Amino acid sequence: MRAIFSGLVLVININIFAVSNIEANKIYSEGEEVELSFVLEQVKSGSVVIISEDHNTYPHQQRQLLFLNKLRKMYPDYKINVGLEFLKYPNQDVIDSYKENKISESEFIVNAHWPKNRDYSDYRPLVNFPQVHLGETTVGLNAPKWLPKKIKNYGLESLSHIERSYLPPNFTLGNKLYYERLKEFILKIHDAPEDMLIDYFTAQSVWDDSMAWMVNRFMKAHPEEILIVIVGEFHSIYGGGLPDRIKARGHKDVINISQFDIDELTHKEILTDTIYHPRWGRRADYVWTSGSNGSKSKGRDKTR
Questions:
Q1: How far apart are CA 147 and CA 207, in angstroms?
Q2: Residues 175, 240: contact at Cβ < 8 Å?
Q3: What is the pTM of this model?
Q4: CA angle 203, 209, 215 (to 5 degrees)
Q5: pLDDT in tens for each of the 304 residues of the chain?
Q6: CA dist list (Å): 22 to 30, 31, 86
Q7: What b-and-e string marks burial along 84-97, b requiring 16 or more CB atoms within 10 Å of the CB?
Q8: In order of start, what are the domains of the chain with their CATH numbers?
Q9: DSSP state of 25
């Protein structure tokens, strides 16, 4: 057992050494730099690709669009759909009406309950990327906003029978390590008793499992198509969240890309967070760094 453990440490150290000169605006996999074209080549019919972001970080939305455009060029015959965390599955008819030019953009923003703290102009090209005439769909993935909000404030037990019908079938919490990561993040902001933390985590898990449910439902109905998922990074990094729930619900072909801003991080933080965090594990299948080249001496909170 000791020999096996030593071998694991050796592999991790080799990977860290391989990216000792890590730079912004590069893509890394298992500690090795790869080209965007290589990542695109991993996508195939039936793939779900999660591209996370720091919300309201315009360069992240630009790169999501870059990925979509290059994917379109590489696979012109594939149907490429886009699902967004900000769009709720009960509002799919509103989304469809907007895409079919039956309602205006302003009506869409109001009736789809687009979040007021997210600049729609940043996301407009992503929402509009799927082409109706090609049979592509912009997919509402998330639960209605009131559902996780009520759970966060009053607990899962507070839901009425009708309200519970909005939960994904066989709703499942994220794993223990995911809970510990969310707990650490919240306690950095303010103190909270354990029962409140559990309610926060249950609400977070409802977001994840609702999106996973809708991803799987869409892919079962469109098994030969591609679905690109736009989501905040906390939902997708280090395991226990959205990628794990998608796989647990039956869809195994998931590619997880984390956009990771390395500005204001120490050199050690960049290395561990890009490759293998000592506590949380592997960040994602691919880490797409952003920011200025080089690390800063000052650390920052990385759990957004």
A1: 9
A2: yes
A3: 0.89
A4: 140
A5: 323 223 333 344 434 444 556 788 999 998 899 999 999 999 999 999 999 999 978 999 999 999 999 999 999 999 999 999 999 999 999 999 999 999 999 999 999 999 999 999 999 999 999 999 999 999 999 999 999 999 999 999 999 999 999 999 999 999 999 999 999 999 999 999 999 999 999 999 999 999 999 999 999 999 999 999 999 999 999 989 999 999 999 999 999 999 999 888 888 888 888 878 999 999 999 999 998 754 333 333 343 4
A6: 13, 9, 32
A7: bbbbbbebbebbeb
A8: 35-261 (3.40.50.11550)
A9: S
> Residue type at 167?
L
Which token pair is 108? 């869409």
What letter represents residue 160's amino acid?
Answer: S
